[in-house]
Amino acid sequence: MSSRGKIQVTTRVRLDDADDLAEHYTPGVAELAERVAEDPSVLARETVRGNSVAIVSDGSALLGLGDQGPAAALPVMEGKAALLKRFADVDAWPICPVSREPEDLVRTAKDLATSFGAINLEDIAAPRCFTVERQLHDELDVPVFHDDQHGTAVAVLAALHNALKLTDRTPAATSVVISGAGAAGSAIARLLLKADFSAERIVVCDSKGTLHGERDLTGEKQWLAENTNRGDAVQGSIQDALHDADVFVGVSVGGLLKGGDLARMADRAIVFALANPDPEVDPDAAHEHAEIVATGRSDLPNQINNVLVFPGMFRGLLDSGAPRVTARMLLAASHALAATVGDDLDREHIVPSVFDEGLVPAIAEGVAGAAEND
To answer: A Gene Ontology molecular-function term (predicted)?
Structure first.
């Protein structure tokens, strides 16, 4: 027996007799088609476009699996669509193009934009993902949300906001080491800079060590070297970067660090080891040296996962009719996510459960409010 997947199409109108067909198909649908032709804004108000998202992936960076191709991406994106429906009542559909050329991915998304109110880019490898997202951001009139960038950054910033509160720190005075200079690491660094963290106190590391101006870098890594670790103060390995650091954020590979490496960090350290399925450092070992530990795993406290973000994000984007994703929206989503924890905030509860009924409405309201001010 085949499950035939996790999602399906259902009707929102009755189609029980000839009168129903005449109203919702021919000839009745012609009147709506004519109104759309005269006023394209009718499309979002009176068709599926106003509540639909295309989830676009080439399968080149599937979470925990790496490059598995577009066919393998389909069940993953289908699961993402199921989550959007379950938590935000957003209708989404997986789109998994065969071509990986940035211009082809851009063309595919642009060709589909008539039918969808927003585009979700997912599991596209860096640096191609940066090119695709930025070009679509500039050329489309619907919002483009890259979950591996934007969703991760929003979730991390929210969790970090609450962790700083518990450890009596402020963003400007907090030093952060980020392991991973791909889509997630880059987006986290960019959003932290927007959230008043100091460019001098953010250090990004790739597999060769810290990013700094004396390395021969290009593209996104060059931007990171120029806009973080100001003055090239920190050079060397990630272990060197951890000396006296307040925060470690890992979005890289499992088993990168030993517990003893964290002993270099400042007192009351914060460790977010988010690689899946295996964190960058063993959580039990991390607890020996850090006050707050978070992972991406659902079987441990403080799971930092994008599912906390994207349902409310898309609900807010679609409800507001926003034409693009902005930094103001990402910051608003992060503040709403952090605030949802409320009085339950403690060392093992720095983010809410995805099943918290107040989470999606809070993020959606924050995003929609930010859209009004953009």
So the answer is: metal ion binding
